[in-house]
Amino acid sequence: MSLSTVAVGLALALDAVVGEPPTRAHPVAWFGRLVGPLDRSWTRPRLVGALAALALPIAAALAVGGLVAAVGAWQPFAGAVVGGVALFLTTSLRRLLSVAREVTALTETDMDAARAELRALAGRDAAALSPGETRSAVVESVAENLADGLVAPLGAFAALAVAAGLVLSSGSIPAGLDPAVAAVALGAAGAAWVKAVNTMDSMLGYRSKPVGWAPARLDDAVMWAPARASAVLIAVATLAPGSPVAARRWLDRVPSPNSGWPMGTVAAALDVRLVKPGVYDINADASLPTVEDAERAVGRVGLAGGLAYLGVGVLTWV
User: Where, by residue number, does the polypeptide cross the bilayer (predicted)?
Assistant: First the structure.
């Protein structure tokens, strides 16, 4: 078993046991405090946003990768542990599924509480949402966040760790640094970079914020492959191999160039309607999700997330 696989296994175990650290202790929240001051008026907002989109994610990647490499130079296995913790902090699955199940259950018993809790999943005005529309938002959010919050950082970790392992095994690394440690360090740096890009987009990437233009465009590019990979994982988890093909029919209804893939795949696989009022309407001929539909969607997305961990674990095994 490689050190990269150890890191992936530790990240999965921490997600299963811990779920997510408190916000005040979460490094992603710390990074958000660096991004926050950008959200104001600037004379040249697009230039500021472009420079920040270039500099801040690279700084996050260097900090994480450097820490893993430094610890790994002292003790390789300790470096893998730090890399696993870093990967855990850049991914999220259990917390996503837990909140989704909670909101789904509340749509039967307390709609005011369901609408309030939905804010933890979806950034939309929930005040007038019906129970079905609220459950639609739950299904949309778990599908989209599978790509943003898990597959993207996991994929970056795998791609860089595997590539680094192949290249660095030739000996072209700093003296004293194990190639396996270097692979973990680069993989963790890649996951941190992706998470930083996504965090900047979530904070700034709105049409009303010109400073967020570059972060949003960068996030669109970064999420291209993870969104489509997530659609495939959902299709496998739902035993509906044709669902990504069916999802193509609705892509032009979704403003994002990426989120329509996992959302449309869930809609096709479970034959449910997913609607964000005034924005998009996916599979409009079907019915809005029932409680059972939403619970099934959450369960299948959880299985898709497990498949993502399994795939990355296999890729990094050797």
Answer: 47-70, 77-97, 150-168, 175-194
